[in-house]
From TrEMBL:
Residues 1-81 form the Peptidase S8/S53 domain. It comes from Tripterygium wilfordii (Thunder God vine). Signal peptide: none annotated. Its main location: secreted. GO terms for biological process: proteolysis. Keywords: Hydrolase, Protease, Serine protease, Signal. This is Subtilisin-like protease. GO terms for molecular function: serine-type endopeptidase activity. It is found in: Secreted. GO terms for cellular component: extracellular region. Belongs to the peptidase S8 family. It comes from the Eukaryota.
């Protein structure tokens, strides 16, 4: 749900990780582990506001309220081979998290374990019939 890309984060100056940012206190780092603290914080805010919501409802709230436009109203861009182009869902998923809207999204899709199980069973049955 949170493929972090270029997240501004604290960085150990003595890290042996990326030689390009060795010696720096902060760095733009990419990866799910970089986005997880941000997503967990927004999920905690939503859970505080809606204590009866489970993981599916919280995930839905974050995804259905995400932004696909930047702060200036322009489409979020993705880096192609040699240029920038409007991002697709394959680039940005649901979009950039909007914590203000996620707390009160208006509509959520709340799936329970039984619902997911039935979906997967029906999916497997349909695949067997091909």
């Amino acid at each position: 749900m949170a493929p972090g890309s270029s997240i501004w984060a604290a960085w150990s100056p003595s890290s042996e990780g990326d030689p390009n940012i060795r010696g720096q206190n902060f760095a733009l780092v990419t990866g799910t582990s970089m986005a997880t603290p941000h997503i967990a914080g927004v999920a905690a805010l939503i859970k505080q506001r809606h204590p009866r919501w489970g993981p599916a409802a919280i995930t839905s709230a974050m995804m259905t309220s995400a932004d696909v436009f930047d702060h200036s109203g322009s489409p979020i861009l993705a880096q192609l081979t040699n240029r920038l182009a409007p991002a697709t869902p394959f680039d940005l998923g649901a979009g950039f998290i909007n914590s203000t809207r996620a707390i009160d999204p208006g509509l959520i899709f709340n799936a329970h374990l039984k619902t997911m199980f039935n979906f997967y069973v029906m999916f497997l049955v349909s695949m067997m019939s091909l």
